[in-house]
Design goal:
The chain folds into two domains: 176 residues, Alpha/Beta hydrolase fold, catalytic domain (Rossmann fold), CATH 3.40.50.1820; 37 residues. It is of the alpha/beta class.
């Protein structure tokens, strides 16, 4: 692997890996790490090219990030872990669980989407416009190139089919905000496509873990301990 991840680590017990969303870092989970570390060995990772983890030279894609996660788990001798992913982090966890079912204990997908079609158009249209503009200037500006890569994840990824979700063997919680930027029907499609998945809606928008941590954490812990 061409990078070393920055990560926050706390607690003891079964491994629980937290995966943040697009353009963010492990700091997003400031309201979760202490709450979960009382019962789990928490690893909050900065994804490739995010936070304090270098970009490296490999492709900037959800599938590459899933490969990076496998490398992280191997490096830290984590044979099997609970995965909690938010937004693009949920998409990484979803792809990882499809590819490496034997490495996932329980799976929590917060604000996941199968493709750009799952995002409300009022949110997606400005993202697509910003992506086109950033691509136009990416040859002249490093910041535009980085912006194009970040926005490209939300325009071109992850392109997972509902049929692929049937291959997930982990016990799964699909959780989203009541006013999420992901279409409710799309969230329900994900839950319906994963065998025996549990579906929970928490009051709030896409950022429920950050803005409604008590209710979010309660739903996650209830799921992990049932």
């Amino acid at each position: 692997m061409d990078i070393r991840h920055f990560y926050l680590e706390k607690g003891a017990g079964e491994p629980l890996v937290l995966l943040h969303g697009n353009g963010a870092s492990s700091d997003y989970f400031s309201g979760q790490i202490d709450a979960f570390a009382g019962q789990y060995h928490v690893y909050a990772i900065d994804t490739r090219g995010h936070g304090r983890t270098p970009r490296g030279g490999m492709p900037f894609t959800i599938r590459q990030f899933a490969d990076d996660l496998l490398g992280f788990m191997d490096e830290h001798q984590i044979e099997k872990a609970h995965l909690l992913g938010f937004s693009d982090g949920a998409n990484i966890a979803m792809v990882f669980a499809i590819r490496h079912p034997e490495r996932v204990d329980r799976l929590i997908l917060n604000g996941a989407n199968l493709s750009a079609a799952g995002i409300k158009r009022s949110i997606q249209i400005p993202i697509e416009i910003g992506y086109r503009i950033a691509r136009c200037f990416s040859g002249k500006s490093e910041s535009a190139k980085r912006n194009a890569e970040m926005l490209g994840l939300m325009v071109n990824e992850p392109n997972v089919s509902p049929a692929e979700l049937a291959g997930i063997r982990a016990k799964t919680l699909v959780i989203a905000g009541t006013r999420d930027m992901i279409k409710e029907a799309h969230t329900r499609l994900i839950a319906d496509s994963i065998p025996d998945a549990r579906l929970v809606f928490v009051k709030g928008n896409h950022f429920i873990a950050n803005r409604n941590p008590l209710e979010f954490n309660r739903a996650v812990l209830d799921f992990l301990q049932c």
